[in-house]
Amino acid sequence: MAQVLPDERELRRVIGDGEGMPDGEVDGLAERDLIELYRGMVLLRTYDERSLVYHRQGRIGTYAIFWNHEAMQVGAVYALERDDWIFPSYRESAIGLLRGMPASTVLSWWRGHPAGWWNPVDYNVASICVPIGTHVPHATGLAWGRKLRGEQTCAIAFFGDGATSEGSFHEGANFAGVMRAPVILFCNNNGWAISTPLSAQTAAETLADKAAGYGMPGVRVDGGDVLAVYEATREAVERARAGDGPTFIEAVTYRAAPHATADDPSAYIDPERVEEEKRNECLGRYERYLVRAGVLTEQLAEEIRGEALEAMRQGIAEAESEQPADPGLVFEHALVNPPPSFDEELRELRKVLGDG
Ligand SMILES: Cc1ncc(C[n+]2csc(CCOP(=O)(O)OP(=O)(O)O)c2C)c(N)n1
Ligand SMILES: [Mg+2]
User: pLDDT confidence of 354, banded at 50, 70, 90?
Assistant: First the structure.
């Protein structure tokens, strides 16, 4: 029977603290896998940090920072096969990079350029979902559809703590439970939905408790521990492939950056808590683990950081070399029967942009 397993109420961890808490290991992960996980985290961290700079330089628009979320994204995706589907929210905008999507594509998305919209079947990565939680039923529907066709693929939907208060989340989770869809509902609980703290979001003791109401297992994991995230997701994938239906994963972390570049968290957040979280951020934790395990040298780390920086330099150069999009696109795809005022408005927009 689906339930919140008592031993999983506490956060699952693999990475120790280098002091009293010992390091664990994940069965089946070779040294090569440990480095690949690190490579993925460095790539996403570099993407995120460079994006903030590009935003400040006016080269991309408003940007949703995912600093300290890398362990959740990389750990979960590493547990999937290439055929499995990923449904990201705006917080996982660059997750396609882990499937070989060029950085320029995602940078174009944040530039509001059509080159930022990829064909989902090219990467088995759905479009970035900005409405909160509406992709949960999409992921569930896709997973169920694949099951009906007799395929072994599963799907994962990433969403935040705030999304668990949305109707779409409930509908998707309920449907997944009833249909035993091979889907993983991955909640990145970073403690905040913009300025709304978790305590004002839910009366549940934990978000994983919600899983019981949908008849699926709910597991809690330290979201800053890439190995624990990987292991928990791998188990969920195994359950899905075995026909045992969905799993809800609550990955607990803390938002160590503003909600987005348009947010000023100093109005509502405790800066000391943020500083504490920054000192314990996920990439540094994993780096120290790898050094303790004798797997990572400074030279290799430098090489991996260099590769990621180069990918970003190339990405922004490519995104900026795109021809500006035709402003008419904004109007063309808005309404089936556009009102006559659109013509006048488009003329005005073209004038403002100096475009004819
Ligand atoms: C349906 C819907 N309602 C409201 C919003 C406005 N909004 C944007 S981000 C956000 C907070 C979501 O918080 P959470 O689900 O915890 O995700 P996080 O941003 O922390 O990753 C809200 C309410 C939206 N995008 N979509
Ligand atoms: Mg949140």
Answer: confident
- 248, with CB counted inside 10 A (0-12, 13-18, 19+), is buried
pLDDT tens for 260-284 read 999 999 999 999 999 999 999 999 9
CB of 236 closer than 6 angstroms to any ligand 1 atom: no
Judged by DSSP in three states, 86 sits in strand
Instruction: Indicate if ligand 1 lies below 6 Å from the C-beta of 91.
Output: yes
In whole angstroms, what is the distance from residue 73 CA to residue 91 CA?
10
Token pair in block for residue 226:
């890439």
Do 342 and 331 form a contact (C-beta atoms < 8 A)? yes
Nearest ligand 1 atom to alpha carbon 259: 19
Q: Answer whether 0.85 is exceeded by the pTM.
A: yes
**Which active-site residues does the annotation give?**
255, 259, 268
Rounded to 5°, angle at Cα 248 from 118 and 43: 40
Question: What's the pLDDT tens digit per position in 52-62?
Answer: 999 999 999 99
